[in-house]
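Why does residue order matter? Because the sequence determines the fold. Keep that principle in mind as you read this record.
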Amino acid sequence: MDSKCKSISRRAVLRNTMLGMTTALAGSLMACAGGSVRNQPVWLSMTQKELDDAYSQFIYAPNIGQVIERWGSNSELARGRIGQPLNFAYGSGAVESLDVYPTNQPNAPIHIFIHGGAWQQGTAESYAFPAELFVNAGVHYVVPNFSWIQDVGDSLYPIVDQLRRAIGWVYQNADKFGGDADSLFLSGHSSGGHLAGVMLTTDWDSEAGLPADIIKGGLCCSGMFDMKPVRLSSRGDYVAFTDEMEYDMSPIRHVEKLRAPLIIAYGSYETPEFKRQSVEFAAIADNAGKSVKLILAEHYNHFEIIETLANPHGVLGQAVLEQMMTIRHSNRQAQLST
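Structure:
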C-alpha cells in the first residue's frame, strides 16, 4: 500500500465517521487498494497493463497501418505479375477455401502459409505478396482461408480443425495443381505463427489419419507458443480460454510431437513477450533434441519482418528457401540409399 493509503489513519476514520463521510473514506480506501492491485505483477514481473501492451502491437509497431496497406498493394502487384490464384474448397464451410499460386515446375514442392490477424481478421487475398518468391523458385504457394474466432464461439478449436483439414486436403489433392505431396512445407506469422506451431506439434497419424511426417519443414514467425500469458492478457477477453484449451493450444507444451525441422524467427522491435515466447520455444525444442534454428531479425518490428519472406535475399525468404533445398536434398539422398 502506498504512502497516500498509509496516511488514512484510525483517527481519520473516526473523524470522518463523526462528519458522516464514511462513504467518501471507503471510496478512498477502495481506490488505494485498486491502485495497489493494478501495480501488482500478473505475469513474470509485468503488471496487467504491461502484459496487455506486450500482447498488442500498437505501442511497439506504430506503423502498423502503413505496413498492412503495403501487404495489400504488394499482393496486388504480385498477382499482376504471376496471375490470379487457383481456388479450391477444402471443406463445405463458406470460408473453407484456399488460394494456390502454382509454379510451372512439375511435381513441385508446396509451401503453405498461415496468415495472422490476432485470430480475428485477415483473408488469403492479402497475403499474396510472398507468392512470387516461391513461384519463381519452383514452389507452389498456398494460403488457406479460415474462420475468425468471433464467428466460431470465441474458440481456437474450430480454427485448428479447419487448418488441419486444409493441410490434409493439400496433401491428398496435390496432383490437382502439380504438387509433390511428399514435399510439403509450412509457415505462419503472428497468430498464424501460433497456429503453425500447433500444426507442427499435431499428431497427424492419430488425429487426422495422415502420415506423421506430413510436414517436412516449418517456420514460425513472431508467434505465441504458450497460451498461459496470452490468456492472462487482454486477448483473454475475446478468446474463451479453458484450462484444456490453454494446454492443447500451447505448442511449447507439446514439443515431443515436433518432427519437422523448425525455424523460429522474430524481430528486434517486437514486444517483450513476443521476443520471450520465440526464444523460450526455441530453447525448449533444442533441449528436447529437436532440429530448430532461431533467427533474430535486427531492426524489424512485428509487421515488417514478414515482408522479408517475399525477398529471396531477405531474412525469412533466404532462410525458408535454404531449409527447403536442404531437406529435399537430404530426402533424395535417403531415398537413393535405400
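Strands lie at 86-89, 97-101, 108-114, 140-144, 179-189, 217-221, 262-267, 292-297.
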